[in-house]
Input
Amino acid sequence: KDEGTGLGLSIVHKNITTLGGNIRVESQKGSTRFTVEIPV
Output
C-alpha cells in the first residue's frame, strides 16, 4: 500500500508511550520492522 495519511502510527505511538512503552523502527531495503514494547 503506497497511500494513506500516516496518522495510524502517530496514534499508536501516543498510546504506547502513554502506557510507558516504546516503539522501535528498523528499516532495510525491501522490509521494515516495528518492535513494540509495553511494560506489564
User: Anything to note?
Assistant: The radius of gyration is 12 Å. The chain has one domain: 7-37.
